[in-house]
Amino acid sequence: MEPRSASWLYVTLCMMSLLAQGFNNHPTSSLPRVQRVKRGWVWNQFFVLEEYTGLDPLYIGKLHSDMDKGDGSIKYILTGEGAGTTFTIDDSTGDIHAIQRLDREFKSQYVLRAQARNRLTDRPLEPESEFIVKIQDINDNEPKFLDGPYRASVAEMSKIGTSVIQLTATDADDPTYGNSARVVYSILEGQPYFSVDAKTGVVRVSLTDMDRETRENYTVVIQAKDMGGQLGGLTGTTRVDISLGDVNDNPPIFDQRLYQMSVPESASVDSEVGRIWAKDRDVGVNADMTYSVIDGDGRDTFGIATDSSNRYAIITVKKPLDFEAKCSYTLKVEGANTHLEDGTTLSDVTTFSDVTIVHISVDDVDEPPVFDAPAYLLEVAEDADVGTLVRMIAARDPDGDNNTVRYSLDRSSDPDKFFYMDITSGALMTLRPLDREQLAWHNISVLAMEMNNPSQLSSVAVSIRVRDVNDNAPTLSDYLEAYVCDGARAGQSLSS
Length: 496
Ligand SMILES: *[C@@H]1O[C@H](CO)[C@@H](O)[C@H](O)[C@H]1NC(C)=O
Known about the structure:
By secondary structure, this protein is mainly beta. It has helices at about 15-20, 345-350, 475-485; strands spanning about 45-50, 60, 75-80, 85-90, 95-100, 110-120, 130-135, 150-155, 165, 185-190, 195, 200-205, 215-225, 235-245, 255, 260-265, 270-280, 290-295, 300-305, 310-315, 330-335, 355-365, 370, 375-380, 390, 395, 405-410, 420, 425-430, 440-450, 455-465. 2-acetamido-2-deoxy-beta-D-glucopyranose (NAG) binds near residues 441, 443 and 463.
């Protein structure tokens, strides 16, 4: 049977009255319960408040047929959503009650069907009719910040009014009815630095010149209150941790106007002499540095580089050092920020740099003796007498104190003791007769050491070639004998 406008279905619009009076503690009997629904009204809706807490079942409405004489011959039947479980009907009187607590946020309406039948014959007396029980909202849900707590960041020195983050509180109550879901935002903690827009929940900067280097982190507590913020509204709060982002508003500064460093003269090229740092109160790229030597007598001898963290200057040796030649250098070093804010002008560029002086002293190192040649190539005649001077070898201590040098031969390089080295003069002499035909080269090592410090020892290669002297007459006889045949005549060619 098609549901149609059912003239037989009367409803009680008790809920409107309930709303007007407050719904708690109303004995159902005292409610103004029956109102005849006029044609043209939305006749088939019942309204009932959610979360009824009374002890008696909540009266919802009444089915009534005009044919009902009140003698119990009509049986009212309720079917549809929640019939028998959530809603019950007195089949004689047609009174409908809710026997379960109703929660609009769980289910906001129920579609039910009403029938009126003859109790004896079970014949329908009225066409089946559909109606809806709508659950009316009460403010039983507080606003909730579902994504909180929040983190946000805003650049330091931002203008007042700069938006930081927008918060949204969700209220499960009915947004289309009353103010139960109408949320207003306020700030409980975090003033005077930040504010919140009551309507939109946008958190904004509310103090000028907030400086990250002074204070970086702020805790802001935001409250959302429903009922449009009015007294009695339910509240929810959340925390926003706001950090100030860095901008390059601090110049780098060397903490010393003069740095002292020292380096041994033996330091190899590219070795590190020392580090200096122009400190910058900013962080990240805003503290990145680049360094250069802009002046000073050491600019050709020392180099400068920036370490991999872009913070420190590394001063290195660029050319070999010699204490005896120059023992002190000065560098004028500039450190500059590499990253400047957009719109930085030329005058700012010099603001974001600093200059310092680095004084480098070269330390004397006790160096071993140095020979007057890197290697020696000498010659001696093979018939030279024992004691012949081959050469005077000379070495000197390069250090300032110029220690006396002592000479010797590396014995392993002259195992057969052909040569003799005079310990004080450096005179290299023959000790035995030489024979080029036996040994054409004597390649020996000469040692020089500082007299008072034998650990300062150096050696040099000396190659002595034995010069040929015509001391061996050709002795062909041995060969000739082999070829002289018996009976050969004088003058006969041997090769024929
Ligand atoms: C000795 O030194 C000379 C010149 O350096 C070289 O020609 C020769 O081969 C060397 N002899 C030996 C045995 O090392």
